[in-house]
From TrEMBL:
Domain Alpha-L-arabinofuranosidase C-terminal: 433-622
GO biological process, one term: L-arabinose metabolic process
Enzyme kind, highest EC tier: hydrolase
Catalytic activity: Hydrolysis of terminal non-reducing alpha-L-arabinofuranoside residues in alpha-L-arabinosides
Keyword Signal: yes
Name this polypeptide is given: non-reducing end alpha-L-arabinofuranosidase
EC number: 3.2.1.55
Organism: Phocaeicola salanitronis (strain DSM 18170 / JCM 13657 / CCUG 60908 / BL78) (Bacteroides salanitronis)
Stored Pfam families: Alpha-L-AF_C (PF06964), ASD1_dom (PF22848), CBM_4_9 (PF02018)
Coiled-coil spans in chain: none
Length: 631
């Protein structure tokens, strides 16, 4: 390879590598959102779903939160040997860790009443074992919030929560909640720490939310409505989840969206990670898989409230306290703006109904917020064909970026290293918003798929003048409740594992550089075609660390000698040693698992640099990142 050291090319956008979050695979409720109680507000269609009841428990309907009106009444069982109570099963159980504290809270009313709260092991030796317990006195006939902190003495993946009436009389309970005290940044109504850490560790430049298909909804009334996801958490209404059903016809009847982790929390998370927030709003169309259904389309002349939702969202993120939505953000705890720069309209839509509607959003957003960057979509590309129809439409509408999705097999990734080499340099930029190699390996998140993603991303990086963002999808998956795979991060109730694809995205995120540097291979400009001896490569300069970073992906089955020569260094002198980070597995079908999370992780070594040249070898089936500093 020859690095044209003095010819700095396109700037690499700080947003280049990031994350795409969607509530799929129990990614939010039961996942990133640390709430441990399922159906805490008794609003699931089956009001007691997730709960077992004992004695006299009834569902009532005139609770203190108008958007979540249901609650339960615990009444005296009327017999000394009977008890009244209820038990929550959590999301595939309630994960408890030894010596960790859990904050139980509940809205309640009752006159001089008591409840007993227990963390239990429901399956211990055939009988229930109480792990921790405490009493709460309910001392008001008005609705009030009560709290109790319990410490678990043991680690248990599938605990339950029990509440008993511990007095004679009636107690009403609403919004029954249990959170680990130790959430991300110790926030109440917080997020699961290990999962946020796995996201933040990659230094994401952009964070897209809330989806995906859930932006659209199975039917239009099920669409994600951000206004329902802000304000007091107790009064955010339940929404169904498009991922209640999967394409394989599996059915998760308890999969709903509580909006507990809503847009405020998602903006805050973006800020915590230093990522640009990128919310997507509904364009007036339900999920594209429903497009023949008339219920899927909002007539073009009835889009006003949808457009207003988009405008109000920008006000929520950026408006000052004199504005309606800026005021709400400030009241929620964030007086400073979130500094929103990007907004996506529509997700993965097919056909002419999309640009017809998008046009009105673009006009309104441009008029009110001329600097806002608008992201359109080029369709799902599900047959592996490019969407010839939608790209020209996006150009006509002059959106700033186009969201492209590709869940494609290995040969597609192998052939697409040059995908962006000939893209129109004058049109909208690309947001590779959902990519994942769906390989034919024995495992879904196997190493070989991630190696081909690494190869593909060299082409993304070489074309940084066209591609501004790239995010893998889906992001999170519960091992006991997934609807889609592969995924970037898997978890159960206690543990999480970073896939090989996570390591690829992480290596790109930490080595993205600031400018592209031209790279030649055997005298020819590297083009990302698979016939280059199975080698894919890209080079960047990183201004803050004054370092050249060369990435080489060897997809072939043999180790290959590689020399990297720097041409045009002028007065710059390279350090005598380069750092080399490699990701490799002898078994292409191997994957990281919850039981063996570090099976395939990057290895670091040093390589000698002789003046302006570095001689090394890239192992078979290896992704290598070389960092060569200038002294
Ligand atoms: O990532 C899973 C789904 O894939 C997304 O919701 C959708 O945009 C795409 O079809």
């Amino acid at each position: 390879f020859v690095v044209k050291a003095n010819k700095l090319g396109a700037e690499i956008q700080p947003t280049m590598y990031g994350h795409f979050f969607e509530d799929i695979n129990y990614g939010a409720d039961g996942g990133l959102y640390a709430e441990l109680v399922k159906n805490r507000s008794f609003e699931f269609p089956n009001r007691l779903q997730g709960w077992k009841t004992f004695g006299k428990v009834s569902v009532q309907e005139d609770g203190p939160f108008d958007k979540n009106p249901h609650y339960v009444r615990l009444s005296s069982p009327g017999h000394a040997h009977k008890r009244t109570g209820l038990e929550n099963e959590g999301f595939f159980g309630i994960g408890l860790k030894a010596n960790e504290k859990y904050r139980f809270s509940v809205w309640a009313k009752g006159n001089a009443q008591k409840i007993l709260v227990e963390l239990i092991d429901p399956y211990s030796m055939g009988e229930t074992q109480v792990l921790a317990s405490g009493k709460i006195e309910i001392n008001s006939s008005e609705w009030k919030k009560y709290e109790l902190v319990l410490t678990s003495p043991v680690t248990l993946e599938e605990g339950h929560l029990r509440i008993f009436l511990a007095s004679e009389g009636n107690v009403d309970l609403e919004h029954v909640s249990l959170f680990p005290v130790d959430t991300w940044k110790g926030r109440e109504n917080g997020l699961r720490k290990d999962l946020v850490q796995a996201l933040a560790d990659t230094k994401p430049g952009v964070f897209r939310f809330p989806g995906g298909c859930i932006v659209e909804g199975t039917e239009i009334e099920d669409r994600y409505q951000w206004k329902n996801s802000v304000g007091p958490v107790e009064n955010r209404p339940l929404n169904s989840n498009r991922w209640e059903y999967t394409f394989q016809h599996r059915y998760y009847p308890d999969y709903h969206q509580t909006y507990g982790m809503g847009f405020y929390e998602l903006f805050l998370l973006s800020e915590d990670m230093g990522a640009e927030p990128l919310p997507i709003v509904n364009v007036g169309l339900a999920c594209q898989y429903q497009n023949n259904d008339p219920k899927a389309h909002v007539p073009v002349d009835q889009l006003d409230s949808y457009i207003q939702d988009a405008l109000d969202l920008i006000e929520f993120a950026n408006g000052d306290e004199s504005t309606q939505w800026g005021k709400l953000r400030a009241e929620m705890g964030h007086p400073a703006p979130f500094n929103l720069k990007f907004i996506g309209v529509g997700n993965e839509q097919w056909g002419p109904e999309y640009p017809e509607r998008l046009k009105y959003f673009v006009d309104a957003i441009r008029k009110a917020y001329p600097d806002m960057k608008i992201i359109g979509s080029s369709g799902p590309n599900s047959e592996g064909k490019d969407f010839d129809y939608l790209w020209p439409e996006m150009k006509k509408l002059k959106v700033d970026l186009v969201d492209e999705h590709f869940y494609r097999p290995e040969d597609w990734f192998l052939k697409s290293g040059n995908r962006y080499d000939n893209y129109d340099r004058k049109g909208p930029k690309v947001f590779a918003g959902e990519y994942a190699c769906h390989g034919k390996g024995k495992k879904w998140n196997h190493f070989h798929a991630s190696l081909l993603e690494a190869a593909f991303l060299t082409g993304v990086e070489r074309n940084a003048d066209v591609v501004y963002m790239a995010t893998y999808a889906p992001l999170l998956a519960h091992v006991k409740g997934w609807q889609w795979r592969p995924d970037l991060i898997w978890f159960d109730n206690l543990r999480s594992v970073r896939s090989c694809s996570w390591h690829v995205q992480n290596l790109y995120g930490h080595n993205k550089g600031t400018q592209v540097v031209p790279l030649l291979m055997d005298g020819k400009v590297v083009s990302g075609q698979a016939d280059q001896n199975g080698l894919f490569a890209s080079a960047v300069w990183d201004e803050p660390t004054k370092t050249y970073i060369v990435k080489v992906v060897n997809v072939s089955d043999k180790a290959q000698p590689v020399s990297i020569e720097f041409d045009g260094l002028k007065k710059k002198k390279l350090a005598g040693q380069a750092t080399c980070i490699t990701l490799h597995s002898d078994d292409p079908d191997a994957e990281n698992t919850l039981d063996n999370p570090d099976m395939i992780v990057p290895q670091e070594s040093q390589v000698a640099v002789d003046g302006e040249t570095m001689q090394t070898e890239v192992g078979a089936q290896t992704f290598a990142v070389y960092r060569i500093a200038v002294q």
